[in-house]
Every structure is written in C-alpha cells, then in structure tokens.
Amino acid sequence: IRVYVHLDSLRALLPPRVTVVGFADSGFYLDVPMFTPLKRFVTAPDGQNATALLSARCLRENPRAPERCLVAEASAAYLRTPLFGFQSRYDVDQRTCEMPPSCALSAPCVEAYGTNATRAMRRWLGASTVAHGAFMDGCSRHCDGGLRSVDPLRMQVDSVTPLRAFAVWRASLGRASEEGVASARRVWFQPGSYPCGACCGGAEVVEA
C-alpha cells in the first residue's frame, strides 16, 4: 500500500537528477465499502492525521473521504512517479479484508473479485499519462506469503518472469518519455481462473 500512496512524496525528498521508480509487491487494494472506511482513523484530525505524505490533489478532490487516498485503486491515479505493480488478482490478504468470509470461501465470488481487480488495474494503466507497468498474476498469494519452498518470482507470462518484466518496463521508460506511453510493452496479465495452482509457477500453495 505504501508504495502506491507515498512514492511521490519520497521522490520529492531526492534531488531531481536522481531517477526514481517504484516496485509494489502487492498492495493494489480496491476502493470498496468493506475496506476503505477502515482507513479513516489514519486521516482523521482526531486520529493519526497522517496526511502529509498523501497526494495533495487526491486530498483536495476527496474532502469528505480523505481515507480514499490510502487505497491504491483511488490513489494510484494521482501518481506522477513511474511505478511497476506486481499484484495477484486473488490476493490472500485482500480476500480477508475486502470480502465477507462467505465470499472468500466461494470460488466464483473470488473469481468475480479478481475480475474487478483486473479491470481496476487496467483502468489505471490505461488512463494514466505516466508509463506505469504491471505484472498481474493468478497465484493465491500476498507478496510471497502463502508459498512454501519456492520463489514466487518464477511464475511467467509469455515466458517472462515478474523481475524480467520489471526490467523490460524499466528499460522502456526512456522511450516512453520520448515516444509516448504506448511505445513499449508495460503490462503482463497471467490467464487462469481461481483457484489456479498452475499460476504459481510450480509453487505449493498454502491456503490461509
């Protein structure tokens, strides 16, 4: 979450000549009623009032719900620093806090959530004038949690691993700034329906 929310503020602390990009391993949470209101204590004046590192524009445009600026689906639209998202559409943690238990136990319901997450990621990437990138997989994971005796970075899309995709995206940034954000491949979406054991690149998945 912090990479999506704080990357621009961290970038501002460094000299302009320094190149900064972000790599977010998980954290693309959706702006849903079950989750977003829980963040109010972070932004509330009588709570933590932790708004200094949030997007000023996001806060201005969400005066009645500044907590939205702590949720990636809403806050990512304001990012000006290039970011690469490595995200599962069936994220284990998101299945515990963004859907009721009955949904988390239902494969069709989790699949529907994954479809919504994919659409949200595509909307963000398609609408942004910044050349963000993403590798979105169907592995049941949060970061590398839930995977045993295997590196989740082994999974592939078109024979490209997440870190290789990140490298290709990073190398394309110079061209994107000169030719436009569509000048090179920036996104990799792994096919597969939930539950997708094959999506984890041979990983043994430990369900929460």
Q: What's the helix and strand layout?
A:
Elements: H1 2-12, E1 22-25, H2 40-43, H3 56-61, H4 72-75, E2 83-88, H5 94-97, H6 101-104, H7 107-127, E3 133-137, E4 147-148, H8 162-179, E5 187-189, E6 204-205
Parallel strand pairs: 1-2, 2-3, 3-5
Antiparallel strand pairs: 4-6
GO molecular function, one term: hydrolase activity
Pfam families: PAE
Q: Describe it for me?
A:
Helix content is about 35%, strand content about 10%. It has about 210 residues and is α/β, with parallel strands linked by helices. It has one domain. A four-stranded parallel beta sheet has the order 1-2-3-5, sandwiched between helices. A two-stranded antiparallel sheet has the order 4-6. The longest helix is centred in the middle third of the chain and has 21 residues, at about 105-125.
In a few lines, what is going on in this structure?
This protein is of the alpha/beta class and 208 residues long.
What attributes characterize this protein structure?
208 residues, alpha/beta, four-stranded parallel beta sheet, two-stranded antiparallel ribbon, 8 helices, 11% strand, disordered C terminus
How would you characterize the largest beta sheet? 4 strands, parallel
Strand content: 5-15%
Distance between the termini: 20 Å
Query: Helix- and strand-based class?
Result: alpha/beta
Side-by-side strand order of the widest sheet: 1-2-3-5
Principal-axis shape equals: globular
Number of domains: 1
Task: Specify Rg, calculated over alpha carbons.
Answer: 17 Å
Low-confidence stretches: 203-208
Discrete helix count: 8
Give the helix level as a range of percent: 25-40%
Order of helices and strands: HEHHHEHHHEEHEE
| Whole-number mean pLDDT | 90
> How many beta-strand runs?
6
